[in-house]
Amino acid sequence: MVTNSRFEFATATRVIFGAGCLRDFKPSELGRKALVVGGRNSDRAAPLLEILKRDGVSSGIFNIAGEPTVDAVTQGVAQARQSTSDFVISIGGGSVIDCGKAIAALLTNGGNALDYLEVIGKAKPLINPPVPFIAIPTTAGTGAEVTRNAVLASLEHRVKVSLRSSLMLPRLALVDPELTSDLPRSLTASTGMDALTQLIEPYVCIRANPITDSLCVDGIGRVARSLRRAWDVSSDMEARTDMSIASLFSGMALANAGLGAVHGFAAAIGGMFSAPHGAICAALLPHVMEANIAALQRRQSAPESLGRYRQIARLLTGNPNAASKDCVAWVRQLCRDFGIPGLGSYGIAPKDVPLICEKASVASSMKANPVVLDPATLQEVLTRAL
Fold it and tell me: CATH number of the domain at 21-175, please?
């Protein structure tokens, strides 16, 4: 793999970052009627609702209990139209942000989500710009505040796929690390491992470029020094700030380079089983890295790709002489320390492996993996992750 010398880079129109920056938010600059998309815990949206009221913006709230589905987006669009909302704000994790992103896009484009979804839908391009969309993450993991897609689950097709367009980049990403300071340990671990995955995969993928390389290297270093600290002491604001930056960088990187086999598997698993996305990624990451390294070594024709895994190992371990296999060991140990469960804990059994691998092989993320993994290797990776 050679870093692309010809590339483009796009991100949110505006990014505001910093502890406490939510308090300075002026929503009236974007509209007069907001649909606020929130998660299961409606209390997390309370500070934003107060700010909207203070700034003279009327609002209604649309909550989703889990990962966004095609039906949930349809309901959100209907509520926004009924209340004549002229902009959308998501405050929550990646699922909440993706839901709001899709609602904002469909408000100005005819039809329904299936008209625009990849793989299972018609994959029609969005024609009209979405209504202004503001993303306010309350976790440090998905980077969804700066991505150009919304990952939606189709219960009918038992798969997760993307509604994707450069028009879907948020108008504003407001990243306030203070909003992550009360995350429970389990969520800190799973979202942090998602951020790490989204920094490693774009760095080694076939569409890496100089800008995404810089973001990934910086972000991986931040995760290495701060994820365990944030997990140990929830209120460690320095560590929380590092993780919020790492998550932001991971979103920028994946949106402009791509991902890999971990997210290829996650797309299939997330549509078939009720399992948190970050936990899926964490369970798969060391096994996919190990398989990629082994496949690259067998090819003996991708020295730069192997060199990138050695660089990841150096960043994670702090050892300038680390070998590529050391990054696998580091991630595997962190998963053990965090108590990351195997995929079998979510009801995935050996009998499910062939179908998951079949679906994963056609997932959009799989196409950017640094090396093509054959069906037998895919099944071996997934079996080890159980």
Answer: 3.40.50.1970
Distance CA 96, CA 24 (A): 22
β strands within the chain, DSSP E? 15-17, 33-38, 58-63, 87-92, 133-137, 149-154, 159-164, 172-175
- Token pair of 300 as six digits: 């003996």
Mean pLDDT of 272-284: 93
Q: How many CA atoms does the CB half-sphere of 379 hold within 13 Å?
A: 10
The dihedral of CA 331, 333, 337, 341: what is its sign? Answer: positive
Radius of gyration of the chain from its Cα atoms, rounded to whole angstroms: 20
CATH superfamily of domain region 185-385: Dehydroquinate synthase-like - alpha domain (1.20.1090.10)
Assess contact for 197 and 262: CB atoms under 8 A. yes
Per the listing, tokens 């995404």 go with: 212
- Provide the pLDDT for residue 24: 95
**Residue type for position 341:** P
CB 342 within 8 A of CB 385: yes
Q: Per residue in 131-142, pLDDT tens?
A: 999 999 999 999
Cβ atoms of residues 148 and 173 within 8 Å: no
Domain layout of the chain by residue ranges: 21-175, 185-385
CA quadruple 170, 172, 173, 174: dihedral sign: negative
Q: Which tens digits make up the pLDDT trace of 65-110?
A: 888 999 999 999 999 999 999 999 999 999 999 999 999 999 999 8
In the three-class reduction of DSSP (H, G, I as helix; E, B as strand; rest coil), residue 89 is classed as strand
Q: Give kind and range of the element (H or E) at residue 351.
A: none
User: How many whole angstroms separate alpha carbon 251 and alpha carbon 243?
Assistant: 12
